[in-house]
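Quick one:
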Amino acid sequence: MTTVALLGTGIMGAGMGHNILAAGLDLRVWNRTAAKAQPLADAGAALHTDPADAVRGADAVRGADVVVTMLGNADDVTAVLEQAADGLAPGQVWLQTTTVGVEPFDGLRAIAERHSLTLLDAPVLGTRAPAEAGQLTVFVAGDPAARPVVDPVLDAVGRQTVWVAEDCGSAQASRLKLVANSWVLAITAATGESVALAQGLGVDPQAFLDAVAGGPLDLPYLQNKARAILDDDFTPSFTVDNAAKDAGLIVAAAQASGTRLDVAPAVRNRLLRASERGHGGEDMAAAYKAS
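Output:
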């Protein structure tokens, strides 16, 4: 049986964990706030209060076939892997699913090299509902020799795995994830602005949604996010603060590549403005409130 150590059980990690359990894999979980991991423990996972638990002798990562990191950013991943260092062993597969961007990935690669881990650059595309349904898209770059070990985990959490490169050194999976997220963030921002403009001009936003419904300008994402705005339901699927973090990674990667972007910096500013108004923990559709 494949043994998986899942470090991070927030909005995304929780759904992934439940699907790993449903696939019959042996799951150990850790989260900075242990209470957030308790539902997975209730479902059959082994809960650890420290990623290495060296003192207690019940390690989250020690002996695991696959170590999965689903945390906030590259600094969080680095800190947690350093905590878990005593339990890491050469040859373990590290499935790094956090969206960390391009340049920060180099620091994670150095950690993997230091501990002789097989690192897979594997950010996921999707939010809470796809994570809970096991319908994520996973972009993976790394040694294909790791596939027999990691495929059961990828099959459990996703509907599709896209192997984009056989080496993780250039962070090709992370680069593709930024491109995909630039599209998601642009759509979300445009949806909020269109609804806000309709309201500002005295137009029923539903009239706009009905006008485009079923046509080439329609998107399920448009309808879903607009509905959340109109229902004033910002239950987080992906938070404003996380979206702002990703927008910052997109802007930084574009600048490093010499690519000028106009939409992504504007979206980032809009998200930051919404966060400053107290909506950082709400769904990213709440960027609408920046209007």
